[in-house]
Design goal:
Blueprint: H1 3-8, H2 19-26, H3 33-37, E1 43-44, E2 61-76, E3 79-88, E4 91-98, E5 112-120, E6 123-130, E7 142-143, H4 152-166, H5 175-181, H6 186-194, H7 199-230, H8 241-249, H9 256-269, E8 276-281, H10 287-299, E9 304-308, H11 312-326, E10 333-336, H12 342-354, E11 359-362, E12 376-381, H13 389-396, E13 402-407, H14 413-419, E14 424-428, E15 439-444, H15 448-460, E16 464-468, H16 476-492, E17 500-503, H17 509-520, E18 526-529, E19 542-547, H18 555-562, E20 573-578, H19 586-597, H20 601-612, H21 637-652, H22 656-670
Parallel strand pairs: 4-6, 8-13, 8-14, 9-11, 9-12, 10-11, 12-13, 15-20, 16-18, 16-19, 17-18, 19-20
Antiparallel strand pairs: 1-7, 2-3, 2-5, 3-4, 5-6
Helix pairs in contact: 4-6, 6-7, 7-21, 7-22, 9-10, 19-20, 21-22
Length: 672
Amino acid sequence: MPRLERLEAPVESLNGVGPALARKLARIGIERVGDLLWQRPRRYEEPVPAKRISELFGDEEAVIEVEVRSVSSRRRGRLKILTARVGDETGEINATWFNQPWLEPRLAPGTSIRLRGRANKFGFAVSSYDLEGEAETADFAPVYPAGEDTSQKKLRELRGQALQLVRDAGEPLPAALLARERLPLRADALASLHAPRALEDAETGRIRLAFEELMVLQVALKRTAAARERSSAEPLPAPGELIQRYRASLPFRLTSDQERAIAEIDADLVRSTPMQRLLQGEVGSGKTVVALYALLRAVETGRQGALMAPTETLAEQHFLTIDELCTPLGIRVSLLTSSLGTRERTAVRQLIASGDAPLVVGTHALIQKEVDFRDLAVAVVDEQHRFGVGQRTALVEGRSPHVLHLTATPIPRTLALTVYGDLDTSELALPPAGRKPIVTGWVTEERSSEAYRRLTRHLDEGRQAYVVCPLIEESETSVARAAEVEAERLRGAELRGYRVGCLHGRLRPADRRGVMASFKARELDVLVATTVIEVGVDVPNATIMIVQEADRFGLAQLHQLRGRVGRGAEQSYCLLVSRPREELSEGATERLEAMVTSNDGFELAERDLEIRGEGQLLGARQSGLSDLRFVRLRRDGELLERARDAARQLEDEGLLAAEADRLLGEAEHAEP
């Protein structure tokens, strides 16, 4: 097989990858051979001194070269502990590995082994090891984003195989451009990134790959902007009587950020070029109120507005919120999701086609061929990074509505300018008046009873609470069943005597709306839920949340979940419960510590970028390209300017059509 095709082959095509390992790799974004190369190391092992056992002191990291004297293993709950008695000419020490039972047969007495780790009161905690001439303990060894059941050793070994295949896979950038920018070939850059001899080598490789990403992005944004300028939309007149009534009906005063965003939207809507604006804001910052303003601007001119959400639960939450605000205004709001019955779905489609549905909220069902708007003037796309490019395009295909994109994912300003170069950006940074920062705590599961004692104190004071179940199972059905079982357990244990409801994605829409309505009406004390409550749920009386097995969630998801509390004037709390610290991966520990120390979504977004080493969190896919895997936002400003210049030069030199098409094709093909 040609080597380029080998990079597109399933990861199972590599030696030593069976179905079980392939499933584990898929969970960390590795499905094809090339995915191994496009994932940047989180960090590199720092140089550490080689010491003899007698020289080990305190918590200092060191390398020791020893011989195995004996080996034993034991279990502590789910934790598998492997201990080897090792020694050199100066003494002996117990070396310990966690959850690596397969290593025991290789540690026969008399085996020489090189260990990297830290001495502690129990012995020597091993972070990496070398057997039979391996180089895992070497200085500058890469450390990758990994699941708890995927070792760094295996990830490095697989990348070594992938690097052998990339040499003949072709070079996408023109030789003249590489020479002008003094950049290495892509294959050399990947080799430097994944097997550096020094940190400077790794950074040189990263810069070359980041340059390519940014250049592809600039080419794509330029094309998108050009297409936008060629299209036209019907301008909307100035705000009228309906907008005045809407603003007067709101039970709160808009923040200065909301007023600024509304003014920017008004300026867009009077133009004949279709609005393409990104409204970004922290959880609870009031994006829905601004989005409804934009939709009502269309409705008051006798035209239509539509809001598309990525999940049925989020669409239903938007529908309930918007319907409540629109009913006093005499505006009919319709809901269209694929789970509606055939008769109901047909009726809503007819209302849309006739124009008798002035305001529609829905999911992907809005972009099906049989849905035909009579006169769509404004479209709002919520959490747009969770839609595919084609899905977002289909909503406006054949039409030229004004479009407002919403995201609660905090996006650093540098990334907004980089990735959303084709969108104007409005930001809601200020929370509504009177809200207090959420206090976040972290305990391990042996102390979870303390978390529930605190929760019941809130319930006894008339407040409400969420309990979020972890996503352990593979299927949504299994997750739903796990949530129901946990709700039943809590009713008979920690939450006996309290009214406990359960919400998950497998409930019928009417049942889901009923559970949420009961919770909002304070007919339930506690809502046990899966991550369907991640966005869109607004119950100000809910002041405390427990997230079970919080180490299994990503940092962005934890921040979104936490945003379900703290939506009123009362002090709110989020309690993260994890497995024991010794069972946690390095990344999981960093995520939980970050949640405890910061409520700033923008700070957490950049922290997550550092922890995960990739840009998926930040919605880079909204451009239709691959994630920004190699770009480092806070340090690559100058590189971005160079990439912009290079993109312009490609066009000036007449190379844009051939080279950029190939770059764009590769980038889109690389998207997981």
